[in-house]
Design brief:
It is built from 13 helices and 8 strands. It binds adenosine-5'-triphosphate and magnesium ion.
Length: 288
């Protein structure tokens, strides 16, 4: 599998001159549906497939990616902003060669920062260009003023829902809100905690249909992850489930999602543009 991914990457490198960085936000309407666990294991899967991945905990103030990965981060995003560290000072190497940035706590809104601090924050983000194939943002649930800017600035969003009506309704409401903004982005869907694969597929297809009919938007169904005790064990062991038990049904499901995602990326053939991401973030925060 690694060989295949490596050759895919070389292909992308050749096509674009150099492989650009793609920014993907993992989002949900309702909280606690499995975004962080998905983000971590998806990042790990992409890394195993040969991509350079940076997992960025953007659930600022309520960050928990480091805990789920069993790491104690020396620094976090708050330290970078408040103590003038560079972004490279706060990047840690997690399990499975996934780089990550911890969100930290005691901080609520980027929007409330002074212009100088915001400018520095964006300048630091800018230096990530081409050092990674994918930057994955693990967002908090729902939408805040800050998170909307990051979601819309990125290349894609992956919506996580469970099959429960409350979770689906919240996912739909969030997508509708995102879709009402001036900028549109590609969205995909993951159904987590399913009883059967069929339940995931049916939930995905229904969601796709409603989104198409009422929002005139196509959403890609990337697959489902079963309800699996391994996930709970992994959380308690502070180890990604892909590492705790690679043969568990949740791990196999994430591997399939990674393959589906890579296939989708290949079909898109679009040039990602990290400069555009930076430009959008700047304009959202009214920076020059
Ligand atoms: N596939 C699964 N099977 C069983 N349990 C799961 C699964 N996915 C998630 N869980 C349970 O749900 C809990 C919440 O997951 P997670 O922290 O990833 O959600 P989240 O969407 O990031 O939450 P928040 O909105 O608070 O950021 C986990 O601690 C785990 O117990
Ligand atoms: Mg989370």
């Amino acid at each position: 599998m690694n060989d295949q991914a490596e050759s895919l990457r070389r292909l992308m490198d050749n096509k674009n001159g150099m492989c650009d960085t793609k920014v993907i936000s993992v989002i949900s309407g309702k909280g606690g549906v499995g975004k962080s666990n998905f983000s971590i294991n998806f990042s790990l899967g992409l890394s195993r497939a040969g991509f350079r991945v940076l997992l960025f905990d953007l659930d600022i103030g309520m960050a928990n990616v480091d805990i789920l990965m069993g790491m104690t981060s020396k620094y976090n995003i708050v330290d970078m902003i408040e103590n003038e560290l560079t972004i490279w000072d706060i990047i840690e190497k997690g399990p499975g060669n996934v780089s990550f940035i911890s969100g930290g706590s005691g901080f609520s809104q980027l929007f409330k920062l002074s212009e100088r601090k915001l400018e520095r924050f964006v300048t630091q983000l800018e230096t990530l260009k081409q050092h990674y194939d994918y930057i994955i943002f693990d967002m908090g649930a729902g939408i805040s003023e800050d998170s909307l800017q990051f979601i819309l600035s990125g290349n894609e969003a992956i919506m996580v829902t469970t099959p429960e009506p409350t979770s689906i309704t919240d996912a739909y409401a969030m997508l509708k809100y995102i879709n009402n903004q001036v900028i549109t982005i590609k969205c995909s869907l993951i159904v987590n905690r399913t009883e059967t694969e069929k339940e995931g597929k049916v939930t995905g297809e229904n969601f796709q249909r409603v989104v198409k009919q009422f929002l005139q938007k196509e959403i890609t169904y990337l697959g489902s992850i079963p309800n699996d005790n391994t996930v709970k064990k992994a959380v308690r062991s502070q180890l990604p489930f892909l590492l705790l038990d690679p043969k568990a049904k949740s791990s196999r499901a994430v591997e399939l999602i990674v393959q589906e995602f890579i296939g989708e990326q290949r079909e898109q053939k679009s040039n990602s543009d990290f400069n555009l991401f930076v430009q959008r973030i700047k304009s959202f925060f009214s920076l020059k």
